[in-house]
Amino acid sequence: MTRLFTAFPLPDPVADHLADHLPKLPAGVKSIDRDTWHITVVFHGDDDLDARLAALAEIDMTLPAPRLRLRGSGTFPGVGWIGVQADGALPALVAAAGRSPEDYIPHMTIARWPKDQQVQLGLDDYTGPEWTPSELVLFTSERGPVYTPIGQVRLLHAEQPRPTC
């Protein structure tokens, strides 16, 4: 069994924009390394690697890629996140990846701190550039922020012709 999750990697221009707008974080707050920023679609936990790779390969290649934008921020106990605004194409892709779209709240973790600490990120009004992800990636996850891409499915962009039978 391998610890796995499926996610959208963040393209460099989007990561650059966010990095340029991040405020200095207070003492005791650990920022997440920019090289590991991603938007988790499904956290699979400890799962069978071969079965998960096979499931990824079966995602309908005709599903359109969603348009995404980082927008706003919030916190969970011990976690700071940036919100993700998405168009109507996201729910079908989330479902195809193995998660119920009804309970999916797209966000990207950017900082962690002790759960008893109260932190405000100061990014409630943040709006990043819009983009269309080119792929959905399956990652392995060691305990801690060490993520290794092990499989991906290319996503159909609106400007690309749809496959025909």
From TrEMBL:
HAMAP family: RNA_CPDase (MF_01940). SUPFAM superfamilies: LigT-like. Belongs to the 2H phosphoesterase superfamily. ThpR family. Its EC number is 3.1.4.58. The keyword Oxidoreductase does not apply. It catalyses: a 3'-end 2',3'-cyclophospho-ribonucleotide-RNA + H2O = a 3'-end 2'-phospho-ribonucleotide-RNA + H(+). GO terms for molecular function: 2',3'-cyclic-nucleotide 3'-phosphodiesterase activity; ligase activity; RNA 2',3'-cyclic 3'-phosphodiesterase activity. This is RNA 2',3'-cyclic phosphodiesterase. Keywords: Hydrolase, Ligase. A motif (HXTX 2) lies at residues 107-110. Pfam families: 2_5_RNA_ligase2. The lineage of its organism: Bacteria, Bacillati, Actinomycetota, Actinomycetes, Pseudonocardiales. InterPro entries: Cyclic_Pdiesterase (IPR009097), RNA_CPDase (IPR004175). Gene3D superfamilies: Cyclic phosphodiesterase. The keyword GTP-binding does not apply. A motif (HXTX 1) lies at residues 38-41. The active site is at 38 (proton donor), 107 (proton acceptor). Hydrolyzes RNA 2',3'-cyclic phosphodiester to an RNA 2'-phosphomonoester.
